Amino acid sequence: MNYPTNQYEVIVVNDGSTDQTGAILNRLQIRYGEKRLRVITIINNRGKAAGFNIAL
């Protein structure tokens, strides 16, 4: 991607995952910063549509 890194944000919705997704996202958020990588964690899986709505 050839876009200025100070002009975008990645939003990830972790919708009730039971694997290591949460831990991996935490490490990536530390590495790239909370302003570049926003992680939204939903404890109980509510489905893709609910995750999109929460992220919006």
Please explain how this structure is put together.
The protein is α+β, with helices and mostly antiparallel strands and 56 residues long. Helices cover 36% and strands 21% of the residues. The protein is built from two helices and two strands, in the order E-H-E-H. Strands 1-2 form a two-stranded parallel ribbon. Strand 1, helix 1 (21-32) and strand 2 form a beta-alpha-beta unit. The protein is globular and about 35 Å long. The mean pLDDT is 89.
Q: Biggest β-sheet, characterized?
A: 2 strands, parallel
- Rounded average pLDDT: 89
Q: Report how far apart the termini are.
A: 23 Å
The strand order across the widest sheet is 1-2
Please work out how many helical segments DSSP would assign: 2
Percent of residues in beta strands: 15-25%
| Shape annotation | globular
Low-confidence stretches: none
Q: How many β strands by DSSP?
A: 2
What string gives the helices and strands in order? EHEH
Helix content: 25-40%
**What is the rounded Rg?**
12 Å
Which structural class do you get from the secondary structure elements?
Answer: alpha+beta
